[in-house]
């Protein structure tokens, strides 16, 4: 069984029904819109691609051992990262979720990520 849905909310952690032991961490457009202004004020895009660039930066700087375990497949309306390593997705979610709920932390993470997140 996966985590309680509230654990990483508004991010969703799921197992693909058609591919057992393959997991996805995602954030949909409706939730990205709630913090889009924070991204824009930091000079970045608050869509799925912006979240992907932010997550990639976070992984490279804070959790480099996860790089090879994660496969990003975001689109403009959805942030998505896949992995067979459920713990890797949980570790990423445990970094992104607090930032989502804390504007100052999210702003700092976007700025720390540098030009790859910029619009």
Mean pLDDT: 93
Number of helices: 4
Query: Distance between termini?
Result: 38 Å
Report the count of strand segments: 4
Helix content: 40-55%
Proportion of beta-strand residues: 15-25%
Question: Briefly, what is this?
Answer:
The chain has 119 residues and is an alpha+beta fold. It contains 4 helices and 4 strands. The protein has helices spanning 29-41, 48-62, 86-100, 103-113, and strands spanning 12-15, 23-28, 71-72, 78-83.
Walk me through the structure.
Helices cover 45% and strands 15% of the residues. The protein is built from four helices and four strands. The chain has a four-stranded antiparallel sheet with strand order 1-2-4-3. The chain is globular and about 40 Å long.
């Amino acid at each position: 069984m996966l985590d309680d849905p509230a654990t990483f909310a508004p991010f969703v952690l799921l197992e693909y029904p058609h591919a057992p032991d393959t997991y996805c961490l995602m954030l949909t457009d409706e939730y990205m819109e709630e913090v889009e202004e924070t991204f824009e004020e930091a000079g970045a895009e608050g869509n799925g691609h912006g979240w992907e660039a932010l997550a990639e930066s976070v992984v490279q700087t804070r959790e480099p051992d996860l790089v090879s375990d994660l496969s990003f497949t975001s689109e403009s309306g959805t942030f998505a990262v896949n992995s067979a390593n459920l713990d890797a997705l949980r570790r990423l979610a445990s970094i992104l979720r607090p930032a989502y709920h804390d504007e100052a932390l999210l702003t700092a993470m976007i700025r720390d990520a540098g030009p790859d997140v910029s619009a």
